[in-house]
Automatic annotation (TrEMBL):
Residues 315-426 form the Moybdenum cofactor oxidoreductase dimerisation domain. PANTHER family: SULFITE OXIDASE, MITOCHONDRIAL, SULFITE REDUCTASE. It comes from the Bacteria. Keywords: Metal-binding, Molybdenum, Oxidoreductase. InterPro entries: Ig_E-set, MoCF_OxRdtse_dimer, Mopterin_OxRdtase_euk, OxRdtase_Mopterin-bd_dom, OxRdtase_Mopterin-bd_sf, Sulfite_DH_SoxC, TAT_signal. The keyword Transport does not apply. This is Sulfite dehydrogenase. SUPFAM superfamilies: E set domains, Oxidoreductase molybdopterin-binding domain. NCBIfam families: sulfite_DH_soxC. Its cofactor is Mo-molybdopterin.
Amino acid sequence: MSRIIKGSGTRELLAQLAAESEHLSTRDRRDFLKKGIMAVGGMASAVTAGNAVANTSNLPPMEPQWGKMLGHGVVEYPYGQPSKFESHVVRRTVPWLTAESISSISMSPLQDLKGIITPNGLVFERYHAGVPQINPDEHRLMIHGLVERPIIFTMEDLMRFPSVSEIKFIECPANGGMEWKGAQMEALQFTHGMLSCCEWTGVPLRVLLDEVGVKPEGKWILAEGADGSHMSRSIPLEKALDDTIVVYAQNGEMLRPEQGYPLRLINPGWEGNTSIKWLRRLEIGDKPWYHREETSKYTDLMPDGKARKFSFVQETNSVITSPCPEHPIVRKGFLEIEGIAWSGRGRIKQVDISFDGGVTWKPANLKGLVLSKALTRFSFVTKWDGQPWLLQSRAIDETGYVQPTLKQLREARGGNSIYHKNSIHTWSVAANGEVKNVQIT
Ligand SMILES: Nc1nc2c(c(=O)[nH]1)N[C@H]1C(S)=C(S)[C@@H](COP(=O)(O)O)O[C@H]1N2
Ligand SMILES: [Mo]
């Protein structure tokens, strides 16, 4: 499945791709696509059938059946669900990643999402001990340690504070981690789907810290969850005073159980693991909690055997979401290339597109809202005449940080790490429109 492309032969590769795919008939292509997608498990339903329908009785000039009858009335579904024809748009997991689904991860279907907001039912999930069912009346947040006035808050107490609503992405630093050693996932959902973006509502943590009064020695905060894993992370006080939010709602409704109901932290732009869910306790200390397993676990192993630690920021990243392996190009002519870019340091300033594997670049347009530490959608309108492409996107954020090539990232970090793989991603588009995950080294 994986194919490594040497940097020197970009033109040769494009020619080779053209030759390879030319002899494939449409039927072969469909079979091939199906197999490629099946190979990643449970993905068959993700193949869109296009507009081909067996039953033409609902098509013009006929009156469709739904125009000849009454539909269902109000509150038939008191909580609405997507159309049954969208049932392929779901979270998916890679079963071989972990032994148990209660300590695993699922990915958002980025290939089917529009705009920048991830609907609540499609936000990626990461748990270490499954999803607890917490009664909010029986849930408390304790803030203690190096503070003047330790307090135990009820949910009602917390919701009395003036609230903020902020659109921020959340990303697991393991996103793309399966691709450090080579291209192996033939689906955007699996190469980049540990990523979602919501409008989060809650109280800035600094407001709560004001209530308890942090002592001058207080420099670090241990955040702990109420789930079976009691997952905890050490967070520097500066972050808490900057933009950490104690969140109770997402996209207009109370948090989903999977996302930490009834209370979680959101540390905008930082490793998802610092955004502790089912938040029960914040302890102020003078140093990080080195004895906690989680503090030592989230490190990046370097080639020399040393490890980077406290690599909190999710660095500038981007990916083309259309076309992608799940959505090949089906027609020649007009084509809008779309994708998403994000930076844990602030706003996206610019995204460039390459059609030749990074040899030349053209600026894309940023679409809609361009917000700090949020997904930003980009677009490039072009024409496709069946020529093979090595499609890439490269994001630059407002700090001037440029998304690195895979080569640059490997030179800097080696190949032992799981985390923080934010390098430029390559889709190879063949002459038949099929899109494959490849790496240029
Ligand atoms: N209490 C608790 N908080 C947690 C976790 C957990 O297992 N337990 N997983 C963390 C990890 S590793 C990530 S990436 C994010 C994922 O958030 P999401 O499931 O809302 O996408 O939650 C973090 N917060
Ligand atoms: Mo994570």
